[in-house]
Write a structure and sequence with these properties.
The chain is an alpha+beta fold. About 30% of the residues lie in helices and about 15% in strands. The protein folds into 2 domains: about 60 residues, no CATH class; about 40 residues. It has 3 helices and 4 strands.
């Protein structure tokens, strides 16, 4: 694993929460929590505790249609990482595929293998 994780080579972008939206034409924009399970309607929890669908852009709390609670929470607890959905997903899939191959070849290879802890550490560092 390279220092800084698998996406360390990408140019730095400012940290921001992913934006979610509730409602139709005049709904509110919310900041999505960086991790969590998506429900059957493809909604995730927001910083204010509601469920919202992801919108492919960064949350901007200064807009009038933005949730003021999400804005305040994002000021108090700024995000720890950048929003790079496509790049993050591709890197994680690559790491998961590599880990699966490594585990499947484990019993049949005469060569020394990395321990499960090392493989898990690589996966966790990527997130």
């Amino acid at each position: 694993m390279r220092p800084g994780g698998p996406l360390a080579h990408l140019r730095h972008r400012r940290s921001a929460y992913e934006q979610g939206h509730i409602g139709f034409a005049r709904g509110k924009d919310h900041a999505l929590r960086p991790s969590g399970i998506v429900d059957g309607s493809e909604r995730r929890l927001t910083l204010c505790g509601l469920l919202a669908r992801a919108v492919p852009r960064e949350f901007s709390g200064w807009l009038e249609e933005s949730c003021k609670t999400c804005d305040r929470v994002s000021e108090v607890r700024p995000p720890g990482r950048q929003v790079r959905l496509s790049a993050d997903l591709a890197a994680l899939r690559s790491l998961l595929d590599g880990a699966a191959v490594e585990f499947s070849r484990r019993e049949h290879s005469p060569h020394p293998q990395r321990g499960a802890g090392e493989i898990l550490a690589d996966l966790l560092l990527a997130v």
